[in-house]
Amino acid sequence: MIKVADIMTTNPHTASASTTLEQALILCKEHKIRHLPIVDQEQHLIGLVSDRTLLAAQESILSELNQRQRRAHEQQVLLQDIMLTKLHTVDAEAGVGQAAKHIEQYRIGCLPVVKNRKLIGIITDTDFVGVAISLLDILAEQEPFGSDL
């Protein structure tokens, strides 16, 4: 059985509850990530923001403010004000199939991986695409597409 630990991203980029919207936007852009776990000083998972959450917070002020006002607002909004706190999480020893079904069932983009409430990794829908591609490659090597039966 393939476990979550086999495909998860370890040591994911994180933020604190006092990280500003502006800092979070920069972090996600620089590291090309769509999910940002929020942890406390002991690395306990306390929340999560997604690119959608960040964009929604940003767009809520775009039409009403000029560029300078928007930047000032982004520097004042803290992630603790917009983060999700009721999170779905997974254990590193869980099966990948179980995690994939959970993501599909609840229509979420990621599952933080926790051990004793501490964030140890993250598994995203993109990770499952990578697994699917690998499995398709293995199948293609065993029986090429278009072969006669």
Q: Care to describe what's here?
A:
Residues 8-64, 83-138 form the CBS domain. Keywords: CBS domain. The model has no long low-confidence stretch (mean pLDDT 89). The protein has 6 helices and 5 strands; from the N terminus they run H-E-H-E-E-H-H-H-E-E-H. The radius of gyration is 19 Å and the shape is globular. Helix 2 (21-31) crosses helix 3 (51-62). The chain has one domain (4-142): CBS-domain. 44% of the residues lie in helices and 17% in strands. It starts with a helix and ends in a 7-residue tail after the last helix. The chain is an alpha+beta fold and 149 residues long. The strands form 2 sheets. A 3-stranded antiparallel beta sheet has the order 1-5-4. The protein has a two-stranded antiparallel ribbon with strand order 2-3.
What is the beta-strand fraction?
15-25%
CATH architecture: Roll
CATH C-level category: Alpha Beta
Instruction: Round the mean pLDDT to the nearest integer and report it.
Output: 89
Quaternary structure type:
single chain
CATH homologous group name: CBS-domain
* CATH topology term: CBS-domain
Structural class: alpha+beta
Strand order of the largest sheet: 1-5-4
Low-pLDDT runs of 5+ residues are none
Distance between the termini: 30 Å
Largest sheet: 3 strands, antiparallel
